[in-house]
Amino acid sequence: MATNEILHYEQGLVETIGNDSDPLFYLFDYDVRSFDINMEFQHFHRFYEIHILIDKDAEHLVDGALFPLRQYDITLLPPLKLHKSIYPEGSPVRRLIIDFSIPEEANPLLNEETNRLLSVFYADPPVLRFNESEQKEIFFHINEICDLLKHKAPGYMLQVHTEFIRFLYCLNKYAPKNIYKQVKENTLEEKIYQVTSYIHAHFAEELSLEFLSQTFYISPYYLSHQFKAITGFNLVNYIQMTRIRNAQQMLLSGKAKITDISIACGFNSFSQFNRTFNKLVGKSPSDFKKNAIQAL
User: Fold this and answer.
1) CATH homologous superfamily for 14-177?
2) Which element (helix H / strand E) includes 193?
3) Fold assignment, 188-295
């Protein structure tokens, strides 16, 4: 453990409390990630996720928008939020992932307080950055949790939960002092990620290479070529993936009819939606929804 750092790091420590389908669930994962295992496309979870960068260089995509990260930045991701970590070439990068679910309280007052703590996950921007004194207070609770996970004394799970609630309290306390700024640089990469962010915000609308090239003042050929070079996807496939990911979210989170979801996600016909969903997910929309319900 590197105890001289503000946030203690225990290489290879992975501890799960409960299952990710349980009302109360925690996963603490201290590990390294490198460029060669970057995720292909943005994904989502049915639980909350916290990404804490322990080294000095990485990026996070959230709903297609690019957020450069530096040491001790905290990325907050609510359930069903599309996201992807991007790590640079070179030495592996240390990070801490915390996944969790907190059950609704029987007491309405306590439930209201829990929801207030979780509201920080729905603020903009999704990245929190603090000065050193604030970092020390916030990460004190994570360091306490790390120690509890290592020693596992009787009652440690209860103590982990209590310490985590204190951590959330600190995040809310200091969230108004967030100093993170999503700097807009006039670079080609930033321009392309402006396009991806637009796609995520307007996936239900008619999107085409010609329309996007006009909107962002880039020639169709140049946009098509550079989009593939930077994102790894051709433009049409990226639009399809974004629509299907949002369709999956809708299938999991509501009671809307599948035909209505296909329209809401920008597909011109149900057959096109069904065919694209099968191609990208490996099963039909109805099977996806059925399997998800059975897993609850």
Assistant:
1) Regulatory protein AraC (2.60.120.280)
2) helix 188-201
3) Arc Repressor Mutant, subunit A (1.10.10)
